[in-house]
Design brief:
Chain lengths: 260, 321
């Protein structure tokens, strides 16, 4: 269910407000047809949401082909020109390096990188923000980037919301594998980005549907395991009003492509 | 820490290279005595870890504890899953491995040698707490705070803790509200899901908030499976309001009642579950308070229609009038 300024919106009506992107139709349909409510206080916030989610999907697809590998926090790797590795296995931006260049380097030169799936999610979300607000605004907001697990990244306000049936492209979700084998602890769960057409991107696993993700994780279970891996019924989402407020001055929202 | 043992003493005072040097000297001079020292029950895990390459030449002369320990190190660092070759009964196998993992964590947990070492400790914790389900949670909680203080990776240990479906660890974390400001900040972050913890003005108030919440909800908690892997603010347990309302304890992992439940309880639960969540929370809290104050009185109260309970709070809903 989609509500803008308190009014319910159909797919067609919402499409007249949002700029057209490769994924805008899928994002809008997913919100309108969702049993969970998606509320936007004003139209620009809705436009911002569609563009941002679209860019997050793009960022996930780019990371999936980047050759960045999965590594546990014990073995995090990064391009030393941009990042140092902390004792906790986090990627710390080097001083005097542009955050926008450092973030794009991960997708462009993935062979230099190896990190956990939670770090991958932060990278995808930040890349989506960078594509939405542009490098100048991004460099101002994220001057001292530290990418680790789901730690608090300044200006990346996150919230966790219940998911009754299905998420929306651009959501972060989690497949949990409660009976993982001690030999495969890296597969105790997988953070994923929701993509259009009921696909998911998981760092180290790739792109596939729900059954693909679950089957992949189930192969890493203990002998005699009785519980299957499963998709947890919550989604991590960016708190849009907060992010919009900090990025508004850098934004130039495209106009709708359909007549209002 | 047992400083009587020569290798422990040397490790603690002179470090890694001194232990290697001492071993090479001793094994050349008095090999039997050197092996006796390595196999001694008081040897602590860091020395075994430091000597892992040198000890491979003496593998068959090592105690079972040390052989299991070396295999554990190799399995973790090379991503293999080898087992001991010597025959023993399943029970002995279980006990020996359990003993070894406890030894690794108890004598080695406080040391932070390097990433490989921490990986080996974390995996020993995984075996002990997640698979054998035999670890002392207090030790795990202490280890997590030790790592946090030393700015060393605690992510995987936190996952083990948050994956414990039994909620006692909440109280063990709350003890750190009486510790240093750094520990208090971390305890507050871990227990953020308990209402009032973030607003507590002092350690005593924070501890009291946690204890009151635990006392009022422990039997009605549902394990969610959330950890620091799943999101930035994991909520490992949620209160099951219907169970709290009818006063029946739940199994946190399965969500099934472990207390005896009558047909009336089932009916009560069914109509209660139709309420909006905020009304459920309100009535569950009321029910629990009445039960605590006067159990006999509560037994009469809970038998009244749900609409009566709602009226007590001036709540009008269409489902229960």
């Amino acid at each position: 269910m989609l509500f803008i300024q308190g009014q319910p919106f159909s797919v067609e009506r919402a499409q007249t407000l949002a700029p057209s992107t490769p994924y805008s139709d899928a994002i809008i349909s997913s919100m309108v047809e969702n049993p969970d409510p998606f509320l936007f206080a004003y139209q620009d916030l809705f436009k911002f949401a569609v563009i941002l989610r679209s860019n997050i999907v793009d960022a996930a697809k780019a990371l999936s082909t980047s050759h960045a590998s999965f590594e546990t926090f014990y073995r995090t790797r990064g391009n030393p020109s941009y990042w140092t590795i902390s004792n906790e296995g986090g990627l710390q931006l080097r001083p005097s390096v542009r955050p926008s260049e450092a973030i794009m380097d991960i997708s462009n030169a993935g062979q230099h990188y190896g990190f956990e799936c939670a770090t991958a999610m932060e990278i995808v979300l930040l890349t989506g923000i960078l594509k939405t607000i542009g490098p100048d605004g991004f460099d101002q907001l994220y001057a001292n980037l530290y990418l680790w697990d789901w730690n608090d990244v300044p200006h990346l306000p996150l919230t966790i919301e219940p998911v009754t049936q299905h998420g929306v492209p651009g959501d972060v979700r989690y497949f949990k594998n409660p009976d993982v084998s001690p030999q495969h602890m890296a597969f105790q769960g997988e953070n994923v980005i929701v993509l259009p057409n009921e696909q998911y991107y998981g760092h180290g696993i790739g792109i596939g549907g729900k059954a693909f993700m679950i089957s992949h994780l189930n192969q890493a279970r203990r002998p005699g395991a009785e519980r299957s891996a499963y998709l947890m019924p919550r989604a991590t989402r960016i708190v849009l009003p907060a992010l919009y407020a900090s990025t508004e001055s850098f934004l130039q929202l495209p106009q709708p492509t359909l007549p209002v | 820490m047992t400083n009587q043992h020569p290798f422990n003493r040397i490790f603690n005072t002179n470090g890694v290279e001194a232990v290697r040097k001492k071993w090479l000297e001793e094994v050349k001079r008095q090999p039997n005595k050197a092996l006796e020292a390595i196999n001694h029950p008081e040897l602590e895990f860091p020395s075994l870890f430091v000597l892992k390459d040198e000890l491979n030449d003496h593998y068959h002369a090592l105690s079972r504890r040390n052989r299991i320990g070396l295999l554990h190190i190799e399995n973790v660092l090379t991503h293999t899953m080898k087992g001991l070759e010597d025959p023993c009964s399943p029970l002995e196998h279980y006990d020996d491995h359990l003993h070894c993992y406890k030894w690794i964590v108890t004598t080695g947990g406080a040391h932070l040698l390097n990433n490989d070492y921490n990986t080996v400790i974390d995996h020993a914790c995984t075996h002990l707490y997640k698979f054998y389900n035999e670890g002392q949670l207090e030790e795990l909680v202490n280890l997590i705070f030790h790592r946090y203080r030393n700015k060393t990776l605690s992510h995987y240990l936190l996952n083990i803790l948050f994956d414990c479906s039994s909620p006692e660890w909440i109280l063990l974390v709350a003890r750190f509200f009486y510790s240093s400001p750094t520990d208090r900040k971390f305890a507050r972050k871990l227990l953020h899901f308990i209402p009032g913890v973030n607003e507590a003005q002092n350690p005593e108030e924070a501890v009291n908030t946690v204890e009151a919440w635990y006392e009022n909800n422990a039997h009605y908690l549902l394990f969610t499976g959330e950890t620091h892997d799943t999101n930035h603010a994991p909520v490992p347990f949620v209160v099951h309001f219907p169970a709290k309302y009818i006063g029946k304890a739940l199994h946190p992992l399965t969500g099934k009642f472990i207390a005896p439940v009558s047909q009336q309880d089932v009916d009560r639960r069914m109509s209660f579950s139709q309420l909006q969540i905020e009304y459920q929370e309100l009535l569950a809290t009321t029910s629990q308070q009445k039960r605590k104050e006067n159990r006999a009185g509560w037994q009469q109260w809970i038998k009244k229609p749900l609409s009566t309970h709602l009226n007590e709070h001036n709540i009008r809903t269409s489902c229960c009038q």
